[in-house]
Design a protein that fits this description.
143 residues, alpha/beta, Rossmann fold, 5-stranded parallel β-sheet, globular
């Protein structure tokens, strides 16, 4: 894959994407593996995705469909070992896992609907952007 921006996708973006096919979160999720960007995951982050997405009532999908999405995310991601813990930096320990994945994975951006929660990330050289901002800045590549 060519030199694409590396991103970490916050759990709230995945929840929004799996709740509706109409929004920007779904559009971002549908571009995974298409060459516009590379997404980074760590084991703790995938476990967080799984914990949240499999909670009853969080997404309107059967367990198998959620498992398939998680498998796809893992198969297409750059799997990043965590060499340095960056905890605690943020008020929510779950957000610290997102920050750790981004810093350890040398990412360009954290894509989240909770931009304010990651203000510390900008001091670490990360862009913290909404799916709308990210999609506007990184258009799909031409074939």
């Amino acid at each position: 894959m060519r030199n694409c921006p590396r991103i970490v996708i916050d759990t709230n973006v995945l929840v929004a994407a799996l709740r509706s096919r109409q929004g920007l979160s779904y559009r971002l999720l549908s571009q995974i593996g298409q060459g516009a960007f590379q997404h980074v995951v760590t084991v703790p982050l995938v476990m967080e995705y799984e914990d949240v997405l499999l909670r009853p009532g969080v997404v309107p999908l059967p367990v198998q469909a959620v498992s398939d999405v998680l498998d796809f995310l893992c198969a297409t991601a750059l799997r990043q070992p965590v060499h340095f813990l960056w905890r605690p930096r943020l008020t929510d320990v779950k957000d610290d896992m997102v920050l750790e994945a981004a810093v350890n994975g040398q990412c360009h951006s954290i894509v989240t609907w909770n931009v304010r929660d990651f203000a510390v990330g900008t001091g670490l050289g990360l862009a913290v952007v909404s799916p709308k901002e990210f999609l506007n800045d990184h258009k799909e590549p031409l074939p």
